[in-house]
Amino acid sequence: MKLYVVSLLLVTLLLSSSLFEIAMANTSFCDSRCGVRCSKAGLMKRCLKYCGICCAACSCVPSGTYGNKSECRCYRDKLNSKGKPKCP
């Protein structure tokens, strides 16, 4: 019984650490892509915030600092409460 509990804990620990790495990899992906996307923004903090939200939801960020939203349909189609584009 003790062996079963120990092995269950070990498997749980391994799975949780690998899921954590996957989540962190996605965050670094979004941070780097949004850094490029927002590099010329007048309101850098706001751009990075909304780009990060959109990247997390869509798992993609269009290339360049402006435009190219056709590369990522989800990113392009997200709207704020006023019906305007949410993603920079």
TrEMBL record:
Q: Where is the signal peptide?
A: 1-25
Q: Which keywords does this chain's UniProt record carry?
A: Signal
Family as reported in the entry's similarity comment: Belongs to the GASA family.
- UniProt protein name: Peamaclein-like
Species for this entry: Coffea arabica
* Lineage of source species: Eukaryota, Viridiplantae, Streptophyta, Embryophyta, Tracheophyta
